[in-house]
Design brief:
Length: 152
């Protein structure tokens, strides 16, 4: 599908990433389409799985989770079900990426205290070896897609 996105689709994606709560009428105004035309395009982007959801950005510290860490997990073997179970159980694990290289997974974890983080890391240690890095700040929080299609 990505190869089939035109400039208008990219403009819609850019606006939705800026403000997922924008009304379809306002979105249409921003991308120079009627409300019905932009509605049809948004529904198509959703149906084709390009737009997978709409999310609120939450200040983790103000929500009671001021400790943010990136944990690399070296996972022996190829039975990944125990990790997937832990990912479902532990909502403090915000992201999990399966990667190449020495470490198999990279996880982003939000915790209320250092002791809370230690508890989660101890559970991960039952699965394999870990390396934990505390996050001081986020100079570039997740920003989504670029505002225009990538060059061929």
């Amino acid at each position: 599908m990505a190869g089939n996105l035109d400039d208008t689709d990219w403009a819609i994606l850019t606006e939705l990433q800026r403000d997922g709560r924008v009304s379809l009428t306002e979105l249409g105004r921003r991308v120079n389409l009627s409300a019905s035309a932009v509605t049809e395009r948004v529904r198509r982007l959703e149906a084709e799985g390009v737009v997978t959801g709409y999310h609120a950005r939450v200040d983790l510290a103000k929500a009671g989770l001021p400790v943010l860490a990136v944990v690399r997990l070296k996972y022996p073997g190829n039975r990944h079900a125990p990790l997937h179970d832990l990912l479902r159980e532990r909502e403090e694990i915000l992201e999990c990426l399966r990667t190449t290289g020495e470490d198999c997974y990279v996880l982003k974890i939000a915790a209320s205290t250092m002791a809370h983080l230690e508890e989660i890391v101890d559970e991960l240690l039952e699965l394999g070896s870990t390396t934990t890095n505390l996050v001081y700040s986020e100079p570039l929080p997740s920003r989504g897609l670029p505002t225009r299609p990538p060059a061929p």
